[in-house]
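In this supplementary section we document a worked example of the pipeline. Step one takes a protein sequence of length 182 as its only input; no multiple sequence alignment statistics are reported here. Step two produces a three-dimensional model, which step three serialises into structure tokens for compact storage. The input and output of this example are shown verbatim.
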Amino acid sequence: MYELLTLATDITEKRGLTLIVTQGTARQSKTDLIANLILNGTLLLVAADEWLPGFLLPRIMRGHTTEIKELTSRLRTVCASTSLRLLDSLSNISAAGEPILVLDFLNTFYDPNMRLSLRFRVLRQCCNHLKRIALHRPIMIMTQEMSGQEYEQFLQILCGIAQKTLYLEPAPEPPSLQLALL
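The serialised model returned by step three reads:
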């Protein structure tokens, strides 16, 4: 988690592509990262699934400032629920601008209604757009670790374009406290 917070402060100064592989949904880590990025400047958030941080984001930011409305105005969101929508969204992003965070990037490529060859072709096209954008601005891609041959092949393509890959392990559960009766 410390690396994610450090990444949030360094990302505004560096361009390139960073891949973050999570175990599980890691919603708290994603929300913390988004809050830290917004505290440092503007952010374009591309959500490749249906989850976006709602009430937790303002709560985290309240710990740093009372200007919640100003901070949340720094966040622009794009929702891409299918791989074709993700491709369209990435193709329309200009090279110059704020840092980009893509949540659950590989999620959209597990559509059983699309031929596998089409999913691979769309993934490669998305990667080409990401490489183009990463020449001029920072991009972070988060994806959930999964099992299966398709996942391994998808991840290999994604790792091939990333300058840095981080593996985020789940935070340890806090120890439960048992109070003494006497």
